[in-house]
Amino acid sequence: MDRAITRLRAVEIGVTMKGIARPVGIVDPVALAGETIIRAAFPNAAFLREHDVHIGDAVALAPTNNDGPEIAEVLPSLRTGDERAVQMPYVCPRCNCDLRQSGDDLVCPSAGCPEQLSERIARIIAADGFNMPEFDAATVARLVATGVVNTPADIFKLRERELVRAGWGAAEARALVAAVERARNVSLDRLLVAMTGIEPAAAESIAVHARSLARVKRLVAGSMARLPNVGTLVAEAVSNFMREPRNRKILAQMARAGVVTARIPAGRN
Ligand SMILES: [Zn+2]
């Protein structure tokens, strides 16, 4: 397998559309698989701590199947003594939100993060979320590009007049606003899927246990993790989401825009 050894000069952080904050190493230029490499991603944020990565360390790069080379190994035996510790960032480079731990990853939990906007809207309109098939991928891309939608809450504030001003035809605009109108009443489990990205089975389990959004906000990750189909990672994802003040603000804006979350009646399970 191809590998190239070079030195790590800096660590930057990038955030993916799914909100995972991924450290990227800036390295001395090196040839790998016919290309000159100057940047390579780390597998995840935990890798830096687990391998005690230092600036100046010799690192081995390896190609990956999907997106560019990865830092596969750190070679502490090649240290010269001039290495210094890596300062991990604590905030999202796109929205300044505090990063939170989720398994081996650091994540930006903000539903208002511009990097994640398209992905979060895709989840909201999905069949297991608010189920708005009238919003196809092209429509979502256009809503974001025209600045009509800047946060997930904006979907629920769409007005025909505003859409027409941004270039939509009158009939199209009417159909989109009608779709939002139909989707406003949502069950708690669907709201959890749409907003936090967890699986429907886990969302249903949390919804049946908590029965209202207000009570989901108060659930601690430890007790949520013990519910059927949930587990630690899902519990962390929900708790990280609910603890973030920006997300509480977006949920409040959605409620003001008419989103009603049905309470699950007691005794259902
Ligand atoms: Zn962010």
Quick tags:
269 residues, alpha+beta, OB fold (Dihydrolipoamide Acetyltransferase, E2P), DNA polymerase, domain 1, seven-stranded antiparallel sheet, two-stranded antiparallel sheet, binds zinc ion
What would you note in describing this structure?
The chain has helices spanning 46-50, 117-125, 137-145, 160-165, 170-183, 188-196, 200-210, 213-218, 221-225, 231-243, 245-256; strands at residues 4-15, 20-32, 35-41, 54-55, 58-62, 70-74, 84-85, 100-102, 105-107, 185-187, 260-262. 36% of the residues are buried. The radius of gyration is 22 Å and the shape is globular. It contains 11 helices and 11 strands. The protein is an alpha+beta fold and 269 residues long. Strands 1, 2, 3, 5, 6, 8 and 9 form a 7-stranded antiparallel sheet that branches. Strands 4-7 form a two-stranded antiparallel ribbon. The protein has a two-stranded parallel ribbon with strand order 10-11. The termini are far apart. It has 2 domains: 4-85, Nucleic acid-binding proteins (OB fold (Dihydrolipoamide Acetyltransferase, E2P)), CATH 2.40.50.140; 111-269, Orthogonal Bundle (DNA polymerase, domain 1), CATH 1.10.150. The structure holds zinc ion.
Structural class call reads alpha+beta
What is the total tally of β strands? 11
The CATH superfamily of the largest domain is: 5' to 3' exonuclease, C-terminal subdomain
Number of helices: 11
**What number of domains?**
2
Shape: globular
- Considering DSSP H and I runs of 4 or more, what fraction of the residues is helical? 25-40%
Sheet of most strands:
7 strands, antiparallel
> Which ligands does the model contain, each kind named once?
zinc ion
- Could you list the spans in which at least 5 consecutive residues all have pLDDT below 50? none
